[in-house]
């Protein structure tokens, strides 16, 4: 029982973290080699060897700020890494893909810059999109009492080869609307890949609607999810009463053609040849209507990469600025971030990036493209490269020790040369996520 409770507590912590703090899902750049993890550990040890001892501010506001800044720093680093990797030769060299008809399909290039040489274009015609499964329950009078005996009930939802049991109580005074709203919250809070909602009509009747987050059918399955209470542990009867087991819209796969060759996919987002990530957005209006997918020119790709870099930097700076009223030290973070483009202001302006008074950057695409086609483009963009490298170093530093920007009280300074390494001090913020769970 203790082990089960521990697993549940950790699950709650993870879900709380993902829904409250984490701005983005994980990316391929969140995986690391052993050597990289060893380097991070050594950096933490070195950073904390002479660091003073603090009394931590563990208020909810400080927790949100510290974890939020760490996640924003991670997101900025991943944004830069996605523009061609962090290596000197590949930085900002990511190729950009184009689509001649975004209404049918959009695309991004996910291969390496070296693999793009001679990459052919392709035509995509979409016959049908992948759809999700929808179960629409019975419409019942919302204000009438539930026509089931008061008791503890449960039902099972099977999805992705996993089975989830939902237990709940029905009281004698509960109405149909109360029960539907309660089960809707129960399913949505479980985060199992279903979205539940209560649909009301004009006659004060309501029914539960369940829709899968996933689309299409894999491995010749007939359903994405199934709702039943035939073998549940508590009383049964709610599935039939509410009509949750009836599938009104069956899931289906996407049907499309690539260069005339028929293809199907359970998802509207697919990878082609490990080079393109294509999203199917709509059905071709007539037979033969296609979207051409290919690579943009080097100048267009560079312009798009710089635009993405600037958006990532501006977003991080604005996120830090939002805490200026509640976190006094956040102004220090804003100042340090803003000082990075100021150090390269002259070169950035010449290349097409203008510095605003609030520290954000504004892009002049015409100047960027003109500079990129010049005879000395490499030297002209050196300031942007130096600026990008400085952003990577700063984002790494913030990710290692976000508590450095929280309003902590210094208790004592360590004796120089006669101290011990404290490598886990920077992990103090991680314990904040366990507040109210342990």
**Biggest pleated sheet:** 5 strands, antiparallel
- Count of helical stretches: 12
User: Which percent range describes the beta-strand content?
Assistant: 15-25%
Mean pLDDT: 82
Strand order of the largest sheet: 2-17-4-13-14
Spatial separation of the terminal alpha carbons: 15 Å
Count all strands and give the number: 20
Overview of this structure, please?
It is a single chain. The chain is an alpha+beta fold. 36% of the residues lie in helices and 22% in strands. It is built from twelve helices and 20 strands. The protein has helices at residues 2-20, 34-48, 60-81, 176-190, 238-242, 298-321, 330-343, 345-351, 365-372, 377-380, 382-400, 428-432, and strands at residues 53-55, 97-99, 105-109, 122-128, 134-136, 140-141, 151-159, 162-170, 194-200, 205-212, 225-228, 247-249, 254-258, 261-265, 269-272, 276-280, 291-295, 353-355, 361-363, 409-412. The chain has a five-stranded antiparallel beta sheet with strand order 2-17-4-13-14, with no helix packed on it. A hairpin with a 2-residue loop joins strand 13 (254-258) and strand 14 (261-265). Helix 3 runs antiparallel to helix 11 (382-400), helix 7 packs antiparallel against helix 11 and helix 8 (345-351) packs across helix 11. The two termini are 15 Å apart.
List keywords for this structure.
438 residues, alpha+beta, five-stranded antiparallel beta sheet, disordered N terminus
């Amino acid at each position: 029982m203790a082990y089960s409770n521990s697993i549940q507590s950790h699950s709650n912590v993870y879900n709380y973290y993902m829904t409250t703090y984490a701005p983005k899902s994980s990316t391929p750049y969140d995986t690391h080699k052993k050597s990289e993890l060893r380097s991070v550990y050594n950096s933490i040890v070195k950073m904390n060897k002479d660091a003073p001892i603090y009394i931590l501010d563990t208020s909810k506001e400080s927790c949100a700020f510290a974890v939020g800044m760490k996640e924003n720093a991670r997101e900025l680093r991943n944004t830069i890494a996605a523009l061609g990797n962090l290596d000197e030769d590949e930085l900002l060299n990511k190729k950009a893909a184009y689509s001649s008809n975004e209404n049918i399909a959009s695309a991004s290039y996910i291969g390496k810059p070296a693999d793009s040489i001679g990459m052919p274009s392709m035509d995509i015609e979409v016959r049908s999109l992948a759809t999700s499964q929808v179960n629409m329950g019975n419409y019942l009078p919302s204000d009438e009492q539930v026509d089931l005996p008061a008791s503890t009930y449960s039902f099972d939802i099977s999805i992705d080869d996993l089975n989830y049991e939902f237990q709940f109580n029905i009281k004698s005074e509960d109405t149909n609307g109360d029960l539907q709203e309660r089960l809707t919250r129960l399913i949505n809070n479980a985060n199992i890949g279903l979205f539940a909602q209560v649909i009301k009509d004009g006659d004060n009747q309501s029914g539960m609607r369940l829709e899968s987050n996933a689309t299409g059918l894999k491995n010749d399955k007939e359903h994405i999810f199934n709702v039943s209470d035939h073998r549940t542990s508590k009383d049964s009867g709610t599935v039939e009463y509410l009509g949750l087991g009836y599938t009104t819209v069956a899931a289906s796969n996407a049907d499309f053609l690539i260069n005339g060759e028929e293809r199907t996919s359970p998802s509207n987002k697919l990878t082609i040849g490990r080079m393109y990530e294509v999203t199917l957005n709509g059905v071709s209006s007539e037979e033969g209507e296609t979207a051409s997918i290919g690579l943009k020119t080097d100048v267009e790709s560079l312009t798009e990469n710089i635009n993405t870099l600037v958006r990532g930097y501006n977003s991080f700076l604005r996120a830090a600025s939002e805490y200026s009223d509640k976190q006094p030290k956040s102004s220090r973070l804003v100042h340090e971030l803003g000082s990075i483009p100021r150090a390269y202001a002259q070169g950035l302006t010449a290349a097409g990036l203008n510095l605003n008074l609030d520290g954000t950057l504004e892009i002049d695409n015409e100047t960027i493209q003109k500079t990129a086609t010049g005879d000395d483009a490499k030297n002209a963009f050196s300031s942007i490269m130096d600026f990008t490298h400085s952003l990577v170093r700063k984002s790494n530093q913030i990710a290692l020790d976000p508590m450095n920007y929280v309003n902590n009280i210094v208790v004592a300074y360590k004796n120089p040369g006669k101290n011990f390494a404290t490598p886990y001090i920077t992990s103090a913020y991680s314990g904040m996520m366990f507040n109210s769970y342990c």
